[in-house]
Structure prediction request, 189 residues.
Amino acid sequence: MSNQITSWDNDYARIARAASQLRTTSPNNSSFDRQGQATSIQTGINRLSSQLTALENNFSINPSEASRRRTLLEGLNSQLLDGGGGGGGGRGGESSTATALRQQDDMIDELAQGVGRLKNQTSLIHQEANSHVRLLDEMDNNVDLANQGLEEETRRAMRLREEKSVWRLHLIIVGLSVLLFLLILMGLS
Prediction:
């Protein structure tokens, strides 16, 4: 799909260069040559238009991008028609200049939209980065709490182990005390 878009872009650039060359060539050139070039450029524009329709139908290109490209094609087509294939001077030149200025304005508008989208994406990346920093800080605090809890449990286990060994001593003392008591009672009887 990306190859089709790249191919479309390359074809458009080639046709736009040809149209520009046709506009800048001297009107003294053979009218037949100029007409043939204009026909060839018009055929290329029609081919690009049908390729663009196919890209839209395949969902290879989003609608706003397709609209932008269609505007470029319309501008190229109007330059071809307005300029009549080259500098006739007077109104044709003015119309071609006006078309070129309109195209420049459209391109500037598209550039402004692109910058706006880039700003929005940058803002989203900034927010995402801040949320990741916040999550990392929380995770650091949670690790510290878990480490403290683990240390506390370790101390508690050590106390239990010590208390268990003390119970043995207590049991031995009680057992010996009972034995001593029995021996004293036996000795008295």
In short: The chain has one domain: 2-135. The chain has four helices and no strands. The CA atoms of residues 35 and 69 lie 25 Å apart. The helical segments are 2-24, 31-57, 63-83, 90-188.
